[in-house]
Amino acid sequence: MARPGNKIIQAKLVLLGDMGTGKTSLVLRFVKGQFFDHQEPTIGAAFFTQILSLTEATVKFDIWDTAGQERYHSLAPMYYRGAAAAVIVYDISSMDTFVRAKRWVQELQRQGNPNMVMAFVANKLDLDSKREVQNEDGEQFAQENGMFFMETSAKTAQNINELFYEIAKRLARAHPSKPTGVNLNDETESRTRRLFCCSG
Ligand SMILES: Nc1nc2c(ncn2[C@@H]2O[C@H](COP(=O)(O)OP(=O)(O)OP(=O)(O)O)[C@@H](O)[C@H]2O)c(=O)[nH]1
Ligand SMILES: [Mg+2]
């Protein structure tokens, strides 16, 4: 619920990353508080909405969860175009997904919105015993490319709300008065649930 006098920011957010890294699982954890051990691969893209109420603003996220399979790559620009925020996801137990995530960052730097808030996310933190990508390597790449870095687990919910809260805070700071993002709700199934989080 928007607080009186509180500004409202509508922000398009896109998730990008290799197949199986946990993009859908991150969103489902954030939007519905759910996790599935056998999450189906996304076909094309899926759309979700969620609202975060901060002290300084109410952020309405329009979330585009893209499909990581290579055959859907050409669709990606449609989803990151006009996005106010991007979450680039890799899986800490797969070096290949880290390499792929770095390529997504390069594509966004070439073709995305230059003011985009970008989060570099190392998911599946619960699989630490199978870790192939060190925390420092993710952190360093993120720093060098002006992104913030977070290790998460959609399975245990570790750092999931923190991730979206941090994005919301940065959006509120970057867009002091005017709404941002593109509303594509009419093309898609929209699921809205309000979440009150992280204020104060
Ligand atoms: N252990 C563990 N498994 C996870 C985690 N997040 C996702 N998974 C599992 O990883 C698999 C792939 O997750 P998805 O969320 O479908 O991955 P995705 O990135 O959306 O994949 P695409 O839609 O194909 O691009 C599923 O079996 C999930 O249960 C996590 O944090 N920890
Ligand atoms: Mg998916």
TrEMBL record:
Matching SMART domains: RAB, RAN, RAS, RHO
Molecular function per GO: GTP binding; GTPase activity
Cellular localisation: Endosome membrane; Prevacuolar compartment membrane
Pfam families per the UniProt record, alphabetical: Ras
Membrane-protein topology: Lipid-anchor
GO biological process, one term: vacuolar transport
GO CC, alphabetical: endosome membrane
Matches recorded under Gene3D superfamilies: P-loop containing nucleotide triphosphate hydrolases (3.40.50.300)
Signal peptide: none
Keywords: GTP-binding, Lipoprotein, Membrane, Nucleotide-binding, Prenylation, Protein transport, Transport
Organism domain of life: Eukaryota
Family annotation (InterPro entries): P-loop_NTPase, Small_GTP-bd, Small_GTPase
Similarity-based family: Belongs to the small GTPase superfamily. Rab family.
NCBIfam families (UniProt xref): small_GTP
Name of this protein: DRAB5-RELATED
